[in-house]
Design a protein that fits this description.
The structure is a single chain. By secondary structure, this protein is of the alpha+beta class. Helices cover about 40% and strands about 20% of the residues. The chain is built from eleven helices and nine strands. Helix 5 packs across helix 10. Bound molecules: adenosine-5'-[phenylalaninyl-phosphate].
């Protein structure tokens, strides 16, 4: 009996090697373990085995049955995996990183301009920061030198939340956090969405975007401010630009200015964009007030800084010749599809 079992096991080991598919595996299983299979038939001789040997022979037969099943199933698993690999390799390869052919979105014109400005400032060593949209009253006002009950708070009609926080009225709300976050010297820009309770017209929205910048170092002057702004504007308008400063007022800068750019569309000769004045009012700015530096943990005796708060919607409208700011929040695809990335 033992020899016969070993013969069958050898036979199965050789036959399994030659199996090429699941049908052949099943046929071998039937041949050995089926109702009239080679191994199954041996079980019939059990009744002739003397009772003291029955246990030993029964175990041999059962072990052999398990070995046969294991050899066949191992081959089936191997064949199934090979079949799957084959299928995967034969399927057309899809590059999921390729842009879609049917659904091509485009960037909002304001995003295009924001990215362009960010690239220019990054090339001049600025980091790009993000600001919160919901801000503390402290960051939005107090930290930038607008104390409670100061009339300057009325300059920005604010949306207040029930918990006493505000929808930030200007990107300057991030100044304090940034002054504290970075080691000196600091060069940072921070674009962001702002909110004010405004009467809407072609130039005013209740939800609009600014792009703010701060430079803090030893001996920073208005000259630095003019240099960086001229560099940025020349790159965006793709020509050398001239700027001028007029006196302004902001509680967080001293002195404060309004920066105008000589109209890049008519070179200052007068056109509808500059309302025949030759200048376009572009960007409030100034030297950071010593109190703002102090609240940011910076000693104003050692360091000075300048800041600007560019209206990003205004820059977008100028760059793409859009004459109503409300278009920018309209979701008007017919309008937006006209704008492409500029090289
Ligand atoms: C400020 O918000 C200051 N925080 C800017 C600043 C920063 C000054 C750093 C000095 C130093 P102002 O309220 O003027 O300033 O707004 C700045 C720009 O945001 C404006 O020139 C304008 O382009 C844009 N802006 C302001 N209010 C609106 C509005 N309701 N809709 C669209 N754009 C607006």
């Amino acid at each position: 009996m033992k020899e016969r079992i070993e013969e069958i096991l050898d036979y199965v080991a050789t036959a399994v090697e030659k199996i090429n598919d699941s049908n052949q595996a099943q046929a071998l299983r039937v041949e050995i373990l089926g109702k009239n299979g080679k191994l199954t038939s041996l079980f019939r001789f059990m009744k002739e085995v003397p009772s003291e040997k029955k246990g030993e022979v029964g175990k041999m037969l059962n072990d052999a049955k398990i070995s046969v099943e294991n050899m066949i199933s191992a081959k089936e698993t191997f064949l199934a995996q090979a079949e799957l690999d084959n299928e995967i390799n034969s399927v057309e390869k899809i590059d999921i990183t390729l842009p879609s052919k049917t659904c091509t979105g485009s960037l909002h014109p304001r995003t295009i301009i924001q990215h362009e400005i960010e690239e220019v400032f990054k090339s001049m060593g600025f980091v790009v920061e993000d600001g919160n949209e919901v801000e503390t009253e402290y960051n939005n006002f107090t930290a930038v030198n607008v104390p409670e009950n100061h009339p300057a708070r009325d300059m920005q009609d604010t949306f207040w939340l029930d918990n006493g926080q505000v929808l930030k009225t200007h990107t300057s709300a991030a100044q304090n956090r940034i002054l504290k976050k970075y080691p000196l010297p600091i060069r940072a820009i921070f674009p962001g969405r702002c909110f004010r309770n405004e009467d809407l017209d072609a130039g005013h929205e209740n939800t609009f975007f600014q792009l703010e910048g701060v430079i803090v170092d030893k001996d920073v002057s208005v000259g630095n401010l003019i240099y960086f702004m001229k560099e940025m504007l020349s790159k965006i308008f793709k020509k050398e630009v001239e700027v001028r400063l007029r006196p302004g007022f902001f509680p967080f800068t001293e002195p404060s200015f309004e920066m105008d750019v000589r109209c890049p569309f008519c070179d200052g000769h007068g056109c509808s964009t500059c309302k025949q004045s030759g200048w376009i009012e572009l960007c409030p700015c100034g030297m950071i007030h010593p109190e703002v530096l102090r609240k940011g943990g910076i000693d104003p005796e050692l360091y000075s800084g300048c800041a600007f708060g560019l209206g990003l919607d205004r820059m977008t409208m100028l760059s793409f010749n859009i004459n109503d700011i409300r278009e920018l929040n309209s979701g008007n695809l017919k309008l937006f599809k006209q704008f492409k990335l500029r090289s």
